[in-house]
Amino acid sequence: MRYKKVPAAGFELSAIGLGGHEFLSDGTVKGMGEDFHRSVTAGVIWEGFGAERRKRVIAAAHEAGINFFDVTMDAEKEALGRNLAELPSLRRVFVQTRPEGMVYDNDPSDVYKRKILDYELLRAEAQRAAGLLRREFIDFYNFGLHAPAVRRDPNYLPRIAENIARLKADGLIRMATADSIFDPELYLEEIETGAFDAIFVSFNFATEGSLQRVVSLASERGMAVFAREPFIKGRLFRFAAEAGFEDRSRVAVASLRWVLSHPEVSVAVIGVDTAEQLRENLRAIEDPMLNDEDRKILDAMRATSSYRDYVSGTG
């Protein structure tokens, strides 16, 4: 495993991180693929998470030296906490999670997305999440903000910054992560607050140039850069199929190498269904620089109609 130091914290994170999603037989995300709004509701714990299949993935992650884990919905938090208790790592493990029901547009009842501004609600949620994870504090707390809500209120980001400082002072979180899904301008505004220690960004070979600016600025400020969705939520393999590449593992490695070849990236966070998939993907870190075969694969996928439809927003 290769590791990168987080300047703001002084510790090292593995170049590959493990996402918390588990998957249904059709490839959709377990929980979210069945009932999205219920799955992202605080307090909902779906059955079947963290079972033997997932435990084999966790064991393979430990064996490979992965020390960064990202979990979203409560079922994933509970499963990771349980699995790490059952399969303790020999090295320190860092976990990123989020305040459930307070991020993005996940709570339709909160039109102005102001729950995350209420410190007492946020504090209670951080305590609850840490409890699910069986940890005393959260290493990285992900503030996935809703751009329209931020735009309505000029005091929104200052309030978020204040809440982050209070959570740290109360010992509930160590680091805060900026997130806005796909809004480059909001990422830049979050970075400029100086309140965040990391960014979580969809960064892959189909990424538009404006996000490169976000990644570069975050790195310049000494922030950790967590790159999610190197496989573009599975679309990567549609591009590959159209381009005539049948070896999904080889395509995944090429895409991962594209991410890892950017020195600004601290961790590439991947989602896998099996321990075998994880081991195959880890071939990317044997030599994280793109080679001629990788470029040939990526260029062929860029030439497909499905890729062009995706980057134009029509597919």
Order of helices and strands: EEEHHEHEHEHHEHEHEHHEHHH
Low-confidence stretches: none
- What is the count of helical runs? 13
Percent of residues in beta strands:
5-15%
Strand order of the largest sheet: 3-4-5-6-7-8-9-10
Helicity, as a percent range: 40-55%
Q: What is the rounded Rg? A: 19 Å
In round numbers, the mean pLDDT is 93
Shape, principal axes of CA atoms: globular
How many beta-strand elements? 10
Word description of this protein:
It is a single chain. The protein has 315 residues and is α/β, with parallel strands linked by helices. Helix content is 43%, strand content 15%. The chain is built from 13 helices and ten strands. It has helices at residues 36-39, 52-64, 74-86, 119-133, 147-152, 156-169, 184-193, 209-220, 235-243, 248-260, 275-281, 292-302, 305-312, and strands spanning 3-6, 11-14, 16-19, 68-70, 94-97, 138-144, 173-179, 198-202, 224-228, 267-270. Strand 1 (3-6) and strand 2 (11-14) form a beta hairpin. It is globular, with a radius of gyration of 19 Å.
